[in-house]
Structure formats: C-alpha cells, structure tokens
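Supplementary Data S3. Sequence and structure tokens for construct A.
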Amino acid sequence: MFSEVQLTEDLPESNLSRGTHAIIVDYCPRPEGQEDGYVLEVLNNQVKAYTVIAV
C-alpha cells in the first residue's frame, strides 16, 4: 500500500484520464472469482491530493 501508480485507462465517470497519478490507500479483496479492488488517492499536477476513488 501507499505505492504510487498510474491509471491504465480513462475513467470518464470520475473525469480522470489514462496516465493520471494516484496513491494506493487501501486494498479491497473480493470473493473468489471476482476482481479485487483498490481505493486510490488521485494526485493533481502539483502532486497534491485531488480526490479519492474506488476501482
């Protein structure tokens, strides 16, 4: 956790584009057969927290 990542695809519902930087703040395991999720703190161009999303 707390690793910096980049979005690999556009998320139009969150108004975020591929390549946007974020920090992993939580890991959300799912039942077997479903894809696990993450809570991300999205960073703006000044590398400050912009918003928090679940993916």
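Construct B, processed identically:
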Amino acid sequence: MIRPLLLAISLTAPLPVMAAPNAQLVASVQVRLDQLGFSDVDAALLSTRQIAALHTQLQGDALAFGPDWIRTRQKVKAILRLDPPRRD
C-alpha cells in the first residue's frame, strides 16, 4: 500500500533536466577560448555538452601555434555551433 504511493509521489516530483557545468571548468574553458581569439564568447552561456567538448578539444598542444592551431580553431567553431547560447 505504501510502496505504490511512494512510487507515485517520486514519479510526479520535478526533476532537474541537466546539471549546470562546474564553474571552475567553465572558467578554464573561457581562458582557453580567449587564447584562441574567441574572447567574445561567454563560456557561462554555453551548454554542458559544449563545455565538455571544448574542454576535451582544448587539451595538450591544441593551443600551440601552427597547423594544429588552425584546425583547433575550426573545431571550436563547429562546437560553438552545436547549440544556441542559453539565457538563464
């Protein structure tokens, strides 16, 4: 008797859609975006999957100048086009 009631209550409770990205991770991505020339992009407005993709993309020698730097900029542009910025 109590179990079905608890199940019904738990299913009707509002659930968060998605957790916000970690503030330290967002700040780290913002610094790297600034270094690549994307200082007009506000990392705090990006989606969680964009922050994660940028963090992964901007590891290691990705910021070294040369052919890799150009490819990195192209990949960052593609990631930034994934989702429109959110306005929370």
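The chain has one domain: 19-80. The chain has a mean pLDDT of 82.
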